[in-house]
Design a protein that fits this description.
5-stranded parallel sheet, Rossmann fold, 40% helix, 17% strand, Isoleucyl-tRNA Synthetase, domain 2, 4 domains, 10-stranded mixed sheet, alpha/beta
Length: 946
């Protein structure tokens, strides 16, 4: 009788086969299911339960860098917060008490700018609104967006103390920020000075380095001649010194010219002028020797002779006249030695505008030159500036060129595209502007030295982060902490009107702090100065400062009121700070300086940085390109677990890419992981751990090999969690599920699971191992795909609290077996040869299913001895397999990387077992019709067929 007829007319063995059963669905439906888990976690108070579970354990504190409360989350926010969540969850499951207190940055220009925009639309004047009312509107704006962002973060599965976040605008926070400032007041680190700072003429305020980005900008370049009026260098008599600059708008602020003391200069005399040249035959000009040729080409000097050669030192004491001398610029322009002067480009002379450049400022001040006030906060020249009063620095270049040409001072002009600082908010180019500001000294109290030591004492991940921030701190100027705005914590200090001295009195500081605790920073505007000064000082003698603190000082102070004094029970320093790599000059930097200036150490033990998120082509995301990937859209289409999986599957220490194709690939990887969990849940249907227990020593080798792999993975999981290397961990877990399990272990053991008797040791051992696999995988993957693992956990244990309250499994020492692993590597290699041969036979239509085959495997005796023990037919999923200790015959299938092993595929002999589908000679010779001996025994022990 044929197998088909037997199947049609014989007994139905299906009820005796243990097919997997689970209510864990193949299709995830994450967008629908995830909110249900969020609601359940909120109802059960998961974060509180985590804190209760963690009591007494070592604390792990990831201090949250505050995002800005002014709009919907973008994909960079999602990457950052998911990565933080994965770290906190993994540290908790490794046995620590891992707190996560989310926070928000609420002060500053972006919010203020939005309120001003609303005013402009309504035709309202901001300055006509009481400052406290304006600040209230800023506070309301921040609070509204904070609530929006909080819900968007929670939707990503971020677990934290969402009911008690920290905000920089909370009254206790504002009070603590001003107390941190007062520490610098009392130790002498805070001072008032007039220095050039990066200034936004659009936003009318100084900007911090972290608020600046660089873009290409086209500048007008000019070569300008300054006539020599007094010099000890005979060759310079009657000559002109030529400067080159890319900022024509700074010419009204010129007060000097710098030279390099060791640079070789020449004085040339013009002997021939090209068409269009702005010089005359006989003119004498000084410039750096190596730059004369370029100058002549630019200025139309067709021929010249060298009158004299000299060193920069020869110019000492030389006095020039401003090009507009006689037009309101009737002052001497001295020449000074500057160690910053180079001969990379230009002329070897640099014009000095102390109001608009750092080098300019310091050199002029050192030489007793007064710093003029030329440009107002909106970028217009002040009324007293000759020729250009009221004009805007952005638009004045053409007029400057024309005025220089009219004066006979312009030798050449052109344009240059170069990297130039811009405001990261308004995108407008910035200027250097010398204004009175408040600074924290990098050298008073050895702040720079303390910060550099703290950098060396900190763990940086990746390690190159250390060098980056070290070089920044090593060369940075004093920290400008004042802004000319209204929304934020004020620089709440007084200085004496007559002496300019900052008032340093702890009692005054304490009164300010107490008032801020009650009314927040608004107290500075609501209460009279006399209340803060007390009876010891006359308010008429002091200036109350209303500048606003740099928001980076706000966020740099968060460690003080979150880690040290907050209600969350945290500790300082934090275990970890984690933000994008741009924060080496932002939050990492300001936090370092603030903490080192007040505590002498960094506020963190380790710092982890991630890159930026680009589109699939590696381009920056922008609305104009139409390549923005919004996390909300990803969550709505795929679910948050797909976004979380994308985060851990990327090497986030570098820039990452995301887009439709990448998300599809991520969804495919997710399905493999989900199917792994689903298979295990189905295989464990009805599992009784006590009844089915099998000692490791009594297990088949294959099961012991799987346990060994789990012991290897356990070490990897813990090391990667310590290293924050989730990219490598995910890759290994995914490969384990796809290759070691789905394509190997599960494939091999399906027959045992489905067809062996429940009391057979092999089947019980398989179920024991699958229970271990499930327990390890569902917990190891819980920090990654928090919703899916919770669904799987509750599917198996409906009455359980949450997988996220569990710890990573403790792996017994006897699971490790390196010798067995080496043996099974050989078995796996041999199996690849067999499966390759089966695939070839299937392609040639020689067989259909692998169970139709009974191959002959040719290998040296040494190989056969290694693979002895396991049934290789079961391992290769064939009905039989002969081991032949002979040379590989011609025509046998081989693989180049598995030496001396070949396979010839023969058809299996016998009939097809109607229960396990193996083709065996003994089928039909047993009590039960149409089955093999193993299946006959199993059915008999189960009481036969119903």
């Amino acid at each position: 009788m044929s197998n088909e007829k037997q199947a049609a007319s014989g007994p139905d063995y299906k009820p005796t086969v243990f097919l997997p059963r689970t209510d864990f669905p193949m299709r995830a439906g994450l967008p629908t299911q995830e909110p249900k888990h969020l609601a359940r976690w909120a109802e059960m108070g998961l974060y509180t339960k985590l804190r209760d579970a963690g009591k007494g354990r070592e604390k792990f504190i990831l201090h949250d860098g505050p995002p800005y409360a002014n709009g919907h989350l973008h994909i960079g926010h999602a990457l950052n917060k998911i990565l933080k969540d994965v770290i906190v969850r993994s540290q908790q499951m490794m046995g620590k008490d891992a707190h996560y207190v989310p926070g928000w940055d609420c002060h500053g220009l972006p919010i203020e700018w939005k309120i001003e925009e609303e005013y402009r639309k309504k035709g309202k004047d901001k300055d006509a609104v009481p400052v406290v009312e304006f600040r209230r509107q800023c506070r309301d704006f921040a609070a509204r967006w904070l609530d929006v962002q909080r819900e968007e973060f929670k939707r990503l599965g971020i677990e934290g103390d969402w009911d008690r976040p920290y905000t920089t605008m909370a009254y206790p926070a504002e009070a603590r920020i001003v107390r941190e400032l007062h520490k610098f007041v009392m130790n002498g680190g805070l001072y008032r000075g007039a220095k050039p700072v990066m200034w936004s003429v659009v936003e009318k305020t100084a900007l911090a380095e972290a608020e600046i980005e660089y873009h290409d900008h086209t500048s007008t370049t000019i070569w300008v001649r300054f006539p020599v009026v007094k010099t000890a260098c005979a060759a310079l008599q009657g000559a002109g010194v030529v400067i080159w600059t890319t900022t024509p708008w700074t010419m009204p602020g010129n007060r000097g010219v710098a030279y390099g003391a060791d640079i070789d200069y020449v004085v040339i005399e013009v002997t021939e002028v090209a068409d269009g040249g702005r010089v005359k035959v006989g003119d004498r000009i000084a410039a750096a020797d190596v730059l004369v040729a370029d100058l002549c080409a630019k200025a139309g000097i067709a021929a010249h002779s060298v009158v004299a050669q000299c060193k920069g030192t020869d110019f000492a004491g030389t006095i020039l006249h401003h090009p507009w001398h006689g037009q309101g610029y009737d002052f001497d322009v001295p020449m000074m030695a500057g160690d910053f002067v180079t001969v990379d480009q230009g002329t070897g002379f640099v014009h000095m505008a102390p109001s608009h450049g750092e080098d300019d400022y310091y050199l002029c001040v050192a030489n007793g030159i007064a710093v003029p006030d030329t440009v107002a906060d909106d970028g217009t020249y002040l009324p007293h500036v000759p020729l250009f009063a009221g004009q805007h620095v952005y638009k004045v270049a053409a007029n400057v060129v024309a005025a220089l040409e009219a004066a006979g001072a312009l030798m050449a002009s052109g344009s240059l595209v170069h990297s130039y600082p811009h405001s990261w908010r308004s995108k407008a180019p910035l200027i250097y502007r010398t204004t009175p500001q408040w600074f924290i000294s990098m050298d008073t109290n050895d702040l720079r030295a303390k910060a550099l030591k703290a950098i060396d004492d900190t763990r940086w991940v990746p390690s190159q982060g250390r060098n980056r921030i070290h070089s920044m701190v090593e060369s940075r100027p004093d920290w400008c902490v004042s802004r000319q705005r209204a929304w934020g914590v004020p620089v709440a200090v007084f200085y004496h009107k007559a002496t300019g001295e900052v008032l340093r009195d702890q009692a005054v500081c304490d009164r300010i702090f107490a008032a801020f605790e009650v009314d927040g920073a608004d107290a500075w505007y609501l209460r009279p100065a006399s209340e803060f000064l007390g009876d010891a000082y006359n308010a008429d003698d002091y200036v109350q400062v209303f500048d606003i603190l740099d928001v980076w000082f706000d966020s740099g102070s968060t460690h003080s009121f979150v880690l040290e004094d907050g209600p969350w029970g945290l500790h300082a320093p934090a275990s970890l700070y984690l933000e994008g790599s741009d924060q080496h000059r932002g939050w990492f930097h300001s936090s370092l300086l603030e903490s080192c200036g007040t505590r002498g150490r960094a506020p963190y033990e380790a710092v982890l940085t991630h890159g930026f998120t680009l589109d699939e082509q590696g381009r920056k995301m922008s609305k104009s390109l139409g390549n923005v990937v919004a996390p909300q859209d990803v969550v709505n289409e795929y679910g948050a677990d797909i976004l979380r999986l994308w985060v851990v599957s990327t090497d986030y220490t570098n820039d990452q890419r995301i887009g439709k194709e990448i998300l599809k690939q991520t969804a495919d990887m997710y399905r493999r992981l989900r199917n792994t969990l689903r298979f295990l849940l189905g295989a464990l249907d009805g599992y009784d751990a006590e009844r089915e227990a099998v000692a490791v020593a009594d297990m088949p080798e294959l099961e012991r090999w799987v346990l060994h792999r789990l012991s290897q993975l356990d070490r990897l999981v813990r090391q990667c969690c310590h290293d924050f290397d989730f990219h490598s961990l995910f890759a290994e877990l995914h490969t384990f599920c796809a290759v070691d399990l789905s394509a190997f272990y599960f494939d091999i053991r399906k027959d045992t699971l489905y067809c062996a008797h429940p009391d057979d040791t092999d089947r019980k051992a398989t179920r024991v191992v699958m229970a271990a696999l499930y327990d390890c995988l569902v917990k190891w993957m819980a920090p990654f795909i928090c919703f899916t693992t919770e669904e799987a956990w509750l599917s198996r244990s409906p009455a359980a609290d949450s997988v996220h309250l569990e710890l990573f499994p403790t792996i017994p020492a006897n699971w490790t077996d390196d010798a067995l692993a080496r043996k099974w590597q050989t078995i796996a290699d041999v199996r690849r040869v067999v499966t390759g041969a089966l695939e070839k036979a299937r392609a040639e239509k020689k067989i259909g299913a692998s169970l139709q085959a009974s191959p002959r495997l040719y290998a040296p005796q040494s190989v056969l001895e290694v693979i002895a023990g396991p049934d290789m037919a079961d391992i290769c999923i064939t009905s039989g397999l002969a081991l032949v200790a002979e040379d590989v015959p011609e025509g046998a299938f081989t693989l180049s990387d598995v030496a001396s092993v070949g396979v010839v595929v023969d058809l299996a002999e016998g009939e097809k077992c109607q229960r396990c589908w193996k083709i065996l000679p003994d089928v039909g010779t047993h009590t039960h019709e149409g089955v093999c001996g193993r299946c006959d025994d199993a059915v008999t022990r189960m009481g036969g067929l119903a």
